[in-house]
Amino acid sequence: MKEIKELSGDELSRLVVHGMLEKKATNIVVMDLRNVKNAITDFFVVCSGNTDTQIAAIADSVDEEVFKASKLSPWHQEGRQNREWILLDYVDVVVHIFRKDRRKFYDLESLWGDAETTIIEESFEPEAPKQMVFE
């Protein structure tokens, strides 16, 4: 039987970033909300895509990377139909995949300005996630 592997918020965030980079997401930002009062999660990982097709592909890639490593699926997801802003909620990490114009409009980075942010360079090569073997 395959079991879900527990991941820390940091580990899960790295997997999410890896999935985003696989589909050439841009302007990737990891927001650490653990020290922000009344935060609803530990991390936001935010990125942009150029088209609705690209943001759907980014969401699929994130899903695939997280599932391959942990057998974990999002607890909740939104936006796959209109593909302007796709949200994947993994409880400790909430993923926001925006079409560029929508990202500017919602401006999450300003709304959560107290968060410690890490900007991921497009040339960043994350450590490849380790493939987990479950029995």
How is this structure best described in words?
It is a single chain. With 135 residues, this protein is α+β, with helices and mostly antiparallel strands. It has a single domain, classed as Beta Polymerase, domain 2, CATH 3.30.460. Helix content is 33%, strand content 25%. It is built from 4 helices and 6 strands. The protein has helices spanning 9-22, 52-70, 100-106, 108-111; strands at residues 26-32, 43-49, 76-78, 85-89, 93-99, 116-120. It has a 6-stranded mixed beta sheet. A hairpin with a 3-residue loop joins strand 4 and strand 5. Helix 1 crosses helix 2. It starts with 8 loop residues before the first helix and ends in a 15-residue tail after the last strand. Mean pLDDT is 85; it is low at 128-135. Interacts with ribosomal protein uL14 (rplN). It holds the Pfam family RsfS. It comes from Emticicia aquatilis.
Quick take:
GO terms for molecular function: ribosomal large subunit binding. Helix content is 33%, strand content 25%.
Write the layout of secondary structure elements.
Blueprint: H1 9-22, E1 26-32, E2 43-49, H2 52-70, E3 76-78, E4 85-89, E5 93-99, H3 100-106, H4 108-111, E6 116-120
Parallel strand pairs: 2-5
Antiparallel strand pairs: 1-2, 1-6, 3-4, 4-5
